[in-house]
Design a protein that fits this description.
28% of the residues lie in helices and 14% in strands. By secondary structure, the chain is of the alpha/beta class.
Amino acid sequence: MWLICAGVDTEVDMKGLNKYLPVGSGNLRGGDLESLEKYLGCYQGIVNYFSIVNDKENKVKVIYDKILYEAEWASFHPMDNTGSTVINREGVDKLKQLTGRDDTNFEIMDFTTIATGAPGAKKEEVKKPNKPKPE
């Protein structure tokens, strides 16, 4: 199971994403009610980055939008759509650390590269977007 966190303006190409994630059926879809409750302690409509605090066994891999990660602040509903809270990159990293995430279950992904089908858009290049490319 994956939790994809993307900016409101980010185009997430689900078919293109199938090339980067080991999806047996090749059919990515939104989480069903039972799985969301079991793994993330939430339900459809309130799933967000903060949901990972409920994934005590780290069964869910987080795919975090590079653009969202590089933003000064990101805003999420904290498990309830009646309000929002903001988090910066340091907060994302701190929550990642506190919930036991590492390179095996947390990945920063450049969805723009996937959506455009840019040449060389391999998982290895997408996986570590903060590494400067030689000019």
